[in-house]
Design goal:
Length: 175
Amino acid sequence: MAIANYNEPPRWLKGWRGGFTFSYMRLLAFNTALKCGFLFSLLFITCSAGINDCSLAIGKMVDKDCIKIIEKDFLILDSSINIEPGFRFIYQGIIYEAVEKRKHYSFISTNDPNFKTPEGIRPSDTFEKLKANPLNVNLKRGWAKTYKLPSGWICAFSFDSKITNKTRIDFLFKD
């Protein structure tokens, strides 16, 4: 007779996926409370109350059900000046490009004119709309000049352009 290991769930439950929560400790407590000589298990499955979170965030798992991939397997030069395999997709009517590492977003960018940050900034807006000091613009050599917004989105300008009030944002990204 095999001795049960109560420190981990049963073998048949390992790798369970889906929108359910399994309380193994409740099952264990119930079995222990019965103190019967026969095997009796009651499985508590409760449906998770939240709606699937389909937001885009760095470090968040890429949920293929929330996006429509329109192009795969092309190279993206990310903000670390690394050339990484990426994909282009549509999310809520906006076209994005992203790099996925270990099934999580590591870089997201867009130059879609319909995209707007929480601050109201769009690609192709001028530096003047940022109401920022040009001295706060950072240079990522060989890639872009950048300015980080409070929302975490970063405005990217051509690395060889001089920043003036009329300089346009080339694209927005998160990394």
